[in-house]
Design a protein that fits this description.
The structure is a single chain. About 30% of the residues lie in helices and about 35% in strands. The protein is α+β, with helices and mostly antiparallel strands. Helix 2 packs antiparallel against helix 3. It is globular, with a radius of gyration of 16 Å. The relative contact order is 0.27. It holds the Pfam family 2_5_RNA_ligase2.
Length: about 160
């Protein structure tokens, strides 16, 4: 599976890693937010995404709400019109051009978040209790990339130094 993700600036990255350390969580990837996921995001679509992303202003994220299911704990982002506009633009490029899009990331279903922990229900409950109340984290975009979730390979599409001003 391929995912289009945003990696955070150094300060936000360290803040999330600090939360991970507090609850004993580990991750193969740096802290991130996923805009889209699909079975395959091919080279032509990646080129289109690079072009579109080069023209978009990517808003800062406010990670400020803990949420949990029986098996996951996440830090949800504040949803505003700027964030939804970027999400919509990304999906305009992907629509009909990727194989097996993940429905959790489609417009109307998407809950923008940074994963903190996946585990058993008792682990999630304990982690929630350990982190609540949460101090909000302001996350700026460091890089947008396609991640191969099977291999861990990262294909950068845009970094902060190439962002529109």
């Amino acid at each position: 599976m391929h995912a289009l993700v945003v990696f955070f600036d150094a300060e936000a990255d360290e803040a999330v890693r600090g939360l991970w350390r507090r609850i004993g969580a580990k991750s193969e990837l740096p802290p991130h937010l996923t805009y889209a996921a699909a079975g395959t995001i091919g080279p032509k679509v990646r080129a289109e995404l690079r072009e579109d992303l080069s023209r978009l202003w990517l808003p800062d994220l406010w990670l400020r709400t803990l949420s949990a299911t029986d098996t996951t704990l996440q830090l949800d982002a504040v949803v505003d019109s700027e964030l939804l506009a970027v999400h919509s633009a990304v999906h305009d490029v992907l629509a009909g051009r990727v194989k097996h899009p993940n429905s959790h990331h489609l417009p109307g279903n998407w809950v923008p978040h940074c994963a903190l922990l996946t585990g058993e229900a008792d682990e999630v409950k304990a982690a929630f209790a350990a982190l609540h109340p949460i101090t909000p984290i302001r996350a700026k975009t460091r890089e947008v990339a396609i991640v191969d979730t099977q291999t861990g390979g990262i294909d950068p599409l845009r970094n902060a130094s190439t962002a529109p001003r």
